[in-house]
Structure prediction request, 344 residues.
Amino acid sequence: MMDVLAWLEQTRLSVFVREDFYAYFVLLIFHAWGMAFLVGGGIVVNLRVLGIAKGAELDKFRMIFPWMKFGAVLAIISGIGLLFGYPAKALTNWVFALKFIYLIAAALLLQHVARVSFGKKMEPVGMVKLQALASLLLWIAGVAAGKMLLYTNSILMTTELDF
Amino acid sequence: MSAAYPVDEVLDPVAIVTWSIDTGLFDIAYSAWGWPIAEIVHFSGVCLLFGAVGMFDLRMMGRLKGLSLPAMHRFIPFGVFGFLLCAASGTIFVSSSPDQYLYNPAFQLKMALIALAGINMLAFYLTTWKQVRGAIPHQPFPARVRIFAMVSLFSWLGVIAAGRVITAFRPPAWFWCAWCS
Prediction:
């Protein structure tokens, strides 16, 4: 595992992300934009299921999904770039796994909520609302785990290790 | 005698940090998990703000057709709440290390863009909101609605970008102070 990470660190892309004057910050900007579209959109759809803005037809909130997907694509591409810069930093940190568990769970739960409640005559109630609330909290948890990455890593690069 | 460094007669970083210590914000910022938690609150606030205001802007730009604009406006208080979360956590950052922010070009740009978004919002509510608040879902909006929405959306995206690069600058106090003498 460490051999692979050490090799990744020496690839041209990895060195570029670390050493170019702009690369890392440009990636960070795109990552933040992507997360704002993804998580921001997710929060709004969940709030609607929870009963905010009932005057707006629930089924039409499907139209927000492409914007969330756009955000996800931005976040994933920039995220892969950031990961290439410091692969050992992220991949040796369990909080990094937690971030994905939270975000994927939030997305799957929202998808489920949309499937069972969108396009129905009745406003969502009970269990579905609870699931929407859980999805909303999972989006925030994903953000929290992402922010914690800066404070919970044990190493930055494999060169810090003897092996 | 000419001062070796420019003198800031407008903002007083020492007074700000003293206030931060007196109010306890400084201790929160530099407690074990204070800063990371404030960062989590800050970006969660950004997501709430951008979700509520950004989707409203997209609707005004002619996207998300079929969603009632007046109904979408119900999300705006959540956006305001998101902004307040950002302002509160932001106050912890800035007051506990003012020199790293006040003389930071990324932070200056971020504040300018927030001001732009605020002025744009004010102008929208004063001149245009009345005409669109009664709009039915498929009704097209006047052209200036699209302009207000684009200024809003792009200034918030700019705020996020400028905020993200604040850490790229570690300003010595005599740098990036246009108002210093």
